[in-house]
Design brief:
2 copies of one chain form a homodimer.
Chain A lengths: L1 E6 L6 H11 L4 E7 L2 H8 L5 E5 L5 H10 L2 E4 L6 H10 L3 E4 L5 H4 L2 H6 L3 E3 L8 H15 L3 E13 L16 H5 L6 E5 L2 E5 L1 H4 L4 E5 L3 E7 L5 H6 L6 E9 L2 H11 L8 E2 L6 H8 L7 H9 L6 H8 L12 E2 L1 H12 L8 E12 L5 E11 L7 H18 L7 E3 L4 H13 L5 E5 L2
Parallel strand pairs in A: 1-2, 1-4, 2-3, 4-5, 5-6, 6-17, 7-12
Antiparallel strand pairs in A: 7-15, 8-9, 10-11, 11-12, 13-14, 15-16, 16-18
């Protein structure tokens, strides 16, 4: 019987675990869910057949080695910076590893040894990155198969809140790791426009968003996401003229978030020793130029806005200008902002989240015609446990694990899901779970 | 015979080595100068009596251990991030260590073991940090001894170019590590104004400079330097109302540098793979919004300035809009900017650099009178080898080493020079080398 070890039973692991356990008995494999918190693990396995829940502290090298040695396939749902020791062990003990995280330079350094040891280290197989790569590659490969040339690829994705649960001015609630939302975008974005490299530093990123229309759902802000340039090679489209991967937020979110960035509230690189009785009002006053207790007026001056402007209302709504205590002795500005927003951006029990993804392809056909095509996915969650985020991150991972157990994936080394061997089976199966792209020809 | 090991014979080590070797024979100690480059070491020792030059790669653990074990006192002139293994060895082998760098959290973690092993880890004993601490503490201790209360302390320092050698629009040439100039200020500055904590993120730092007048030398831009708050405790002035440490530049430097920051050119956190034949004009075009070959006009639009404005002239003067090749295959924006400026901000052989330091103290005397006092140091270098920077960084370090050999410094553990035991002897001796503060009562 094959054995799968899942490390980290966090927010995004529900669908992943349900899927695997729904196949485990019939397909003769077992799933061990390991978490630092036994209850988190147990609440996910629900003691179903062929499941086991265990406590595992991955910093305990002995226990980590023991458990990885017992498995055939390891899934790491740990925060990205914690994957590396797990990946090292997997290569050493010749176990396959699957994660939804971006390939780091550290992980990439294991490629040769992984190939030598007949091991697959499959990364970026969640939603974004994950479904984005797979769905884009299926279209790109089809265009190329028909003799077409791709001139422009722009791809956007956002984990948002469904319209029916959208009852705050930001149109945002946390459906995944809040920390990742707070520090999102903190490296100069790299992309390509009409053949020219474009570099956009963090302090201009949210001020440079563009509006993207998604039919039936209105307009969204889109800001550039990390390094789009590197995917030219990975996608096999090295001569493309425009290439941009971006993140979606409700319209106005980016402009308001830019105020936080400009104030300095998202900085996670310094540790401040806060005075006693330090309030959020004290906190923002420390970042605003000038002095005085009329914080709204100082904020308006800083942003060059009026009290009645929506951006000011959005910021005031967070409580950042209020007299609640920060309640931290020491921390970064980003930690303070996260603590505040975690109270305001709660996905309540009956709230539904929403995942939106849209690719826009511009290409020239073999016959020389210029075409434009969009491919759009919208998935709505059921509640704050069965989220669209958890579903779209977890299912591709789970399906890849199952295909690997079945011997349907033969790739080895460090991989991302851009090859038909992986994406064909998974995209087809995702449709059965309601995760479907709608393609539409647009005016070129 | 006592033995001193100096690791790193870079730009700032000339005066340091000359001073020690001028005392070595009479006071019966020897100096070993270790560098990764034998010529650099030999050019500094000049084979003088009681000197030795050796090649040392500090990443070679065996050689590092061997050489540290042979020494009584180690001076590390390495880049700050490389001190830690040396400091660990010093504590293990019970050798004193002296550096001109800021105390890092890592170094601080060695405090208890250093005390236990009867070892002194003396840091921040160069110019800034170094002479600033010593000269400020002598004044602060005198105010306190007379029953006064310090209300405000503001301290500024800059490594600049002397007026007679100032022949470029930035008023700047590299008199120390260029990299440190390019990435200076890349963490939210923390200071105190009228009892309120102030936090200033990097992308507003250079836009928030203030003008500081230094008698006889005109007005300088001053921008806030790192974490001023932490020095309240170190200086023993925990109830002070205003506390700011800042860095000086020629007037307009900060406004022009802010354009580089806003463009994103000082980012050192991403690696870009540059296309072939990539020019500086391509580089800045990638950061400027919009497109088109009229870079000056796009720069004017970005900065909201006119072609004839001094700030635009300063930027154009660097060659950033020109067609020279960048000549890097891969690197960060900061590396590209450094490469460009290293060609333009050369301290030529006969050029003289200038160090300016000014403290401004505001205090209430025992009798209740409000006083304001400034204390100012200006030191001009002799040429591009015998720089004011090398002199003011190297001499305090060298003097501390000599006092330690003589047994005049009994402190142990992790220290910075804020106690009379260190600063009295050194400040008095610095005067003999022309490093003298001029005190002046100002209007309160």
């Amino acid at each position: 019987m094959k054995s799968v070890l899942l490390i980290g039973a966090g927010k995004s692991s529900g669908y992943l675990i349900d899927y695997l356990l729904s196949h485990a008995v019939a397909e003769n494999f077992e799933l061990t869910v390991a978490d630092i918190n036994m209850e988190a693990a147990l609440s996910k396995t629900k003691s179903l057949p062929n499941s086991k829940a265990i406590v595992l502290d991955i910093n305990n090298q002995y226990e980590r080695h023991q458990n990885i040695q017992k498995a055939d396939i390891v899934i790491s749902m740990l925060p990205a910076f914690m994957h590396f020791p797990v990946a090292q062990d997997c290569v050493t003990y010749k176990k396959h590893l699957i994660t939804a995280s971006y390939v780091s330079a550290e992980i990439m350094s294991l490629n040769e040894l992984a190939i030598k040891n007949d091991v697959l280290l499959l990364n970026e197989i969640g939603l974004d990155p994950g479904i984005d790569h797979m769905s884009a590659m299926r279209v790109i490969h089809e265009i190329q198969r028909n003799g077409g040339v791709l001139n422009s690829f722009r791809s956007f994705c956002g984990g948002l809140v469904a319209p029916e649960s959208n009852n705050n001015p930001w149109g945002y609630k946390f459906s995944w790791n809040p920390r990742n939302v707070i520090v999102a975008g903190q490296a100069t974005a790299q992309y390509l426009t009409n053949g020219e490299y474009k570099f956009l530093p963090y302090h201009r990123l949210f001020a440079s968003s563009e509006l993207i229309e998604v039919e039936g759902y209105g307009k969204f802000d889109a800001y550039a996401n990390r390094d789009s340039l590197s995917y030219r090679k990975i996608y096999g489209i090295e001569n493309i003229k425009t290439m941009l991967r971006g993140t979606l937020r409700q319209h106005l979110f980016c402009e308001a978030w830019h105020v936080f960035v400009m104030l300095g509230l998202t900085d996670d690189s310094i540790q401040i020793n806060f005075p006693k009785q330090y309030t959020y009002a004290n906190f923002i006053s420390s970042f605003l130029p000038g002095s005085g207790s009329d914080l709204v007026q100082r904020l308006c001056q800083f942003t060059n806005k009026k009290v009645e402007d929506e951006i000011i209302k959005m910021i005031v709504w967070t409580g950042l200008l209020g007299n609640d205590l920060v309640g931290l002795e020491k921390g970064s500005p980003a930690m303070v902002l996260q603590k505040l927003l975690e109270k305001k951006w709660v996905l309540e029990e009956s709230d539904k989240d929403m995942v939106v993804m849209q690719h826009v392809f511009e290409y020239t056909t073999a016959k020389g015609a210029d075409k434009k095509m969009s491919s759009t996915l919208v998935t709505i969650g059921e509640n704050n446990q069965k989220t669209a985020m958890s579903k779209t991150v977890g299912l591709p991972l789970a399906m890849a694990v199952r295909r690997l157990i079945k011997g349907q994936i033969k790739l080895r080394g460090v991989q991302v899901p851009v090859l038909p061997e992986i994406y064909e089976l998974i995209l087809d199966e995702l449709v059965l779970h309601g995760i479907t792209f709608v393609e539409k020809e647009e005016l070129a």
